[in-house]
Amino acid sequence: MVQVRKVRLHGRWQSVGQGRQWVDENGRHLLIMLPGQTVRELLLHAGTLQWLLLEKRDGSGTAV
Fold this sequence. Notes:
Low-confidence stretches: none
Oligomer: single chain
Distance between the termini: 19 Å
Helix content: under 10%
């Protein structure tokens, strides 16, 4: 189990709440809640071990 307490967005560290997590062929997924009650999905990509903040259902995202 991975615990995420802060993420860096737009050059600033933001505290987050964390929900469920799961693993699939893409890597480890975590649901987080950003300030303002915005729910987003983080992915620790299995091939690169890079964290991505997923933005759309198609799996595209930005590195964090």
